[in-house]
Amino acid sequence: MKKILATTAVILAASTGIAAAQNWSAEIYGGASLENTLSYGPGNWDTDQGTTFGVGVYNTSWVQGLEVGLDLMATSVDYTGFTTGLDSTSLMLNARYAFPLGGAAEAYVGAGLGAINLKYVAPAPFGGSDTVAGGQLELGLRYKMGAGNLFTAVKYQSSFADAMIHGVSQDYDNTSVIVGFSFAF
């Protein structure tokens, strides 16, 4: 009898864990960081198109359609006509809300707050980095495919204050177009 009760308890615990785990999703994405104009020091400088890569983990158990999670994103752009560039790495606490479009498609909007590390990529001794607070907005579409979603989105990130790198101010605004896949677990 004890073995049956113990086995039943293990099965119930495992099924409860599996049910809870189904409220989580992970995603991976990549794309293009669009051309932009950024101020560095006293001037405004154009950037070339760059790259974006990111991962995220979200929980959907709070409110129907609402996802809350962490988003880690990296971008890299070069200043047009120069051998210098700006890399960013951000970690955002992000919330997204999905709107069904019918069938397997849905749209979503999101907003996040967090930290952005900005790295001015230049020959020594001019390069350097600083971490500042920032935020992001996201607008996307996704299509359900099995246990996951294929998605595309536009992400806009901005720092709330300029980074200070060797006493020179560096602003940050970035618009990225991304494509990725998320899967539930």
From TrEMBL:
Domain of life: Bacteria
Entry keyword set: Signal
Native organism: Rhodobacter ferrooxidans
Protein name as catalogued: Outer membrane protein beta-barrel domain-containing protein
Residues annotated as signal peptide: 1-21
Domain Outer membrane protein beta-barrel: 8-185
The keyword Disulfide bond is assigned to this record: no
Keyword Manganese: no
InterPro entries: Beta-barrel_OMP (IPR027385), OMP/PagP_B-barrel (IPR011250)
TM ranges: none
